[in-house]
């Protein structure tokens, strides 16, 4: 078998019949009768299986007993036109080697229960299902498209640190990083934890965002983006929150909020179009299996102009809706953050398309956002999406040293960890803007999955860090 090279199933399915081939993969199903067996083989290269046809007369009866769902095979044979419906070609097997058997009694995917909840408990194996194959191929393609988009625009890919001493968003949701012995914590004379004894000589955490370092990059290189994991110890057990998620954060010198919104809109449309153009089979599979409005929704986003609306007007629309009988669980008041039910009302019911909400009250947004003349709002922009709610959060940044320092003092923030950041405003400050796209939120939209735990291979959520 060894002189002939293995061909991936994706390529076999598109190849011309009439040649000898080798396929390798895992058995999805086996059926047949005494004379002939049909094996559906999948190797992860695409959603579809290739059908292996084996005449019982040519093989040892014992071999077929070992070919069960999940077993791994190397199959040599002739690629022939398929007589059955459903596939153009199949392999008429001449040799079958079993790489690894798979005990049907113990194989976790043999179970009748194929619910998403069950599959999360066997996340080490769920990548072998059609659904997770499709989702993870899409995830990989989207990561590639993100780099392609920014590379084509001449942005610099900046690697910002994962271990940091600053809480960018100021929400206090950081995971501490320490090598101190927790059974014997060193103390200062005053009884405080003595971080000078810790690995970095100070208190450190996992980053919630690469933005602050990203701003250092943008005010030197012009236009940068980061793309990496971020960590938040927020105790929100929702279908849209992870404790470890990936974020793309572009940061651009000389961009105002309008330029920022234009980039965000172009970026998302590019990614959605990329998925439709390059991952059609996987998108179609997810559309057909889970949500037959998925493709329609994706095409809808590409073909529409996002609404751009100040927060204050958003509140007015919501209040009007309440006056007309719309019910919400949470109250709507100027000055409070919108709940996802409010965001979704605006996007799904009122406008029927993505909405970029701008100019939020300063007290519900981070310290670095550009302050508006009214003294009450900041130049924030959240992009709100159907079924997801917030997919992007960003803003124009406060470029004035004086205003930034005033805000930092007003909020009572510690400046010891922040002087390096404030230097951007001290030395050649420029107007600049940026935003963060939650990678898994994007994937929720593109795959149509309804729980964020199902668009990342190994989700980290409160009380769950398995695998
Ligand atoms: O709105 P956020 O908190 O903004 C920032 O972190 C800014 N520093 C970004 C920037 O301006 N450079 O987060 C940005 C996005 C959200 O819109 C959401 O899509 C996603 O990150 N996100 C989460 N995704 C999954 N799980 C969580 N716990 C998330 N928190 C935020
Ligand atoms: Mg946000």
Textual characterization of the structure:
The protein has helices at 9-12, 61-66, 116-121, 130-152, 211-221, 257-278, 280-290, 294-302, 311-323, 340-351, 401-410, 419-426, 439-447, and strands at 19-32, 36-42, 50-55, 72-81, 89-100, 156-157, 163-164, 176-177, 204-206, 223-231, 244-253, 307-310, 355-361, 377-385, 389-396, 432-438. The two termini are 36 Å apart. 31% of the residues lie in helices and 24% in strands. α4 (130-152) packs across α6 (257-278) and α4 packs across α7. It has 13 helices and 16 strands. The chain is elongated. The strands form three sheets. The protein has an eight-stranded mixed β-sheet with strand order 6-10-11-16-15-14-13-12, sandwiched between helices. The chain has a five-stranded mixed beta barrel with strand order 1-2-3-5-4. The chain is α+β, with helices and mostly antiparallel strands. Magnesium ion binds next to β15.
Secondary structure elements and pairings:
Layout: H1 9-12, E1 19-32, E2 36-42, E3 50-55, H2 61-66, E4 72-81, E5 89-100, H3 116-121, H4 130-152, E6 156-157, E7 163-164, E8 176-177, E9 204-206, H5 211-221, E10 223-231, E11 244-253, H6 257-278, H7 280-290, H8 294-302, E12 307-310, H9 311-323, H10 340-351, E13 355-361, E14 377-385, E15 389-396, H11 401-410, H12 419-426, E16 432-438, H13 439-447
Parallel strand pairs: 3-5, 6-10, 12-13
Antiparallel strand pairs: 1-2, 1-4, 2-3, 4-5, 7-9, 8-9, 10-11, 11-16, 13-14, 14-15, 15-16
Helix pairs in contact: 4-6, 4-7, 6-8
The structure holds 4-amino-1,4-dioxobutan-2-aminium adenosine-5'-monophosphate and magnesium ion.
């Amino acid at each position: 078998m060894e002189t002939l090279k293995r061909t991936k199933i994706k390529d076999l399915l598109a190849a011309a019949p009439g040649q000898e081939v080798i396929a390798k993969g895992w058995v999805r199903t086996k059926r047949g009768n005494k004379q002939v067996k049909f094996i559906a083989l999948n190797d992860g290269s695409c959603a579809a299986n290739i059908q292996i046809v084996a005449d019982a007369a040519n093989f040892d009866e014992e071999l077929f007993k070992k070919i069960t769902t999940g077993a791994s095979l190397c199959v040599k044979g002739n690629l022939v036109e398929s007589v059955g419906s459903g596939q153009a070609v199949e392999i008429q097997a001449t040799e079958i080697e079993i790489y690894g058997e798979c005990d049907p009694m113990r194989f976790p995917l043999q179970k009748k229960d194929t619910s998403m909840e069950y599959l999360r408990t066997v996340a080490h194996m769920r990548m072998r299902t059609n659904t997770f194959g499709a989702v993870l191929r899409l995830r990989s393609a989207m990561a590639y498209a993100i780099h392609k988009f920014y590379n084509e625009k001449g942005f610099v890919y900046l690697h910002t640190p994962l271990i940091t001493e600053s809480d960018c968003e100021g929400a206090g949701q950081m995971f501490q990083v320490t090598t101190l012995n927790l059974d014997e914590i060193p103390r200062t004379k005053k009884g405080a934890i003595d971080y000078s004894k810790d690995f970095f000589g100070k208190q450190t955490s996992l980053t919630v965002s690469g933005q602050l370092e990203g701003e250092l990059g943008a005010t030197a290189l012009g236009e940068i983006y980061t793309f990496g994991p971020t960590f938040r110890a927020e105790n929100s057990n929702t279908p849209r929150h992870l404790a470890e998620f990936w974020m793309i954060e572009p940061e651009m010198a000389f961009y105002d909020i309008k330029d920022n919104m234009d980039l965000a809109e172009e970026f998302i449309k590019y990614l959605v179009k990329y998925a439709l153009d390059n991952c059609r089979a996987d998108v179609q599979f997810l559309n057909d299996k889970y949500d037959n409005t998925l493709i329609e929704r994706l095409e809808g986003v590409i073909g529409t102009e996002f609404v751009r609306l100040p927060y204050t007007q958003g509140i007015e629309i919501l209040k009007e809706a309440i006056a007309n009988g719309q019910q919400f669980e949470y109250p709507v008041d100027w000055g409070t953050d919108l709940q996802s039910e409010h965001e979704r009302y605006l996007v799904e019911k009122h406008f029927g398309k993505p909405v970029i909400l701008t100019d939020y009250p300063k007290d519900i947004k981070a310290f670095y956002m550009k302050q508006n003349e009214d003294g009450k709002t900041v130049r924030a922009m959240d992009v709100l999406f159907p079924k997801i709610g917030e997919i992007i959060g960003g803003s124009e940044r406060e470029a004035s040293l004086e205003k930034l320092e005033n805000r930092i003092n007003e909020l009572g923030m510690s400046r010891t960890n922040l002087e390096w950041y404030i230097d951007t405003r001290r030395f050649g400050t420029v107007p600049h803007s940026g935003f963060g796209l939650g990678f898994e939120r994007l994937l929720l939209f593109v795959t149509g999955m309804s729980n964020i735990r199902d668009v990342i291979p190994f989700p980290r959520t409160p009380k769950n860090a398995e695998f």
